[in-house]
Amino acid sequence: MINVGRSLLFYLGYFTAMLLIGVLFLPIAPFLPLAARYRLLNLYNYFLMVWFRIACGVRYEIQGRENIPSGPCVIQANHQCEWETLFLQVMKPPVCTVLKRELLRIPVFGWGLRLLRPISLDRSKPARAMKQVLTQGVERLGTGLSVLIFPEGTRVDPGVRKRYNKSGSVVACRAGVPVLPVAHNAGERWPGRHWVKRPGVLRVRIGEPIETSGRTPDEVLEDVEAWIEGQLQEISEVPRPASR
Length: 244
Description:
Elements: H1 2-24, H2 34-56, E1 58-63, E2 74-77, H3 83-91, E3 95-100, H4 109-114, E4 119-121, H5 126-142, E5 146-149, H6 167-175, E6 179-184, E7 200-206, H7 217-235
Parallel strand pairs: 1-7, 2-5, 2-6, 3-4, 3-5
Antiparallel strand pairs: 6-7
Keywords: Acyltransferase, Membrane, Transferase, Transmembrane, Transmembrane helix
Protein name: 1-acyl-sn-glycerol-3-phosphate acyltransferase
GO molecular function: 1-acylglycerol-3-phosphate O-acyltransferase activity
């Protein structure tokens, strides 16, 4: 019951903050340059990070911030819930996120996302989506934005393993930028399929950038998957499945 009460309190702040952002910031955000627009709308993500910790009794252990490169990169992380999408937005701003198009239709939340120049995909057309990621991903990196791509493609519950997609590694190789791998156990604190949050330690590890120069996407992807899965073996409370 304590976790239920904490979760209700969290969502009260969650939706109140979303309403305030919609009323106060969204009307002026379209008239700002992208960098300033990002800083303004990112206040929502900063607030939720802090509020989740306070309301739900979660403690963060984040290692490897010194590995974040100063220039653009392709960020690849395991995908368990909404929390990592918040954290990765504030970890290395500004970042362009590859996401499903349906998210842009959510009132207020989706309107704010649309203003941040994401790469929105129609998952019913995989061939077109892949081409879109490669074209727009390289273009965004060329403008100085980093690109966030979840190699699993969708949310995966803790303790479950899904095949990694190499689209992010292809984009990084074509643009000549490094891949920044990130591993976390956020789904154990913020379940992706249940609204009740769980107190405890949320661990994040940020790896050293994986260089792409002179390498194939398959080689890069192999390093990304090996690093993320190796870290998950160490930080996850839910046992990981055997490697493929």
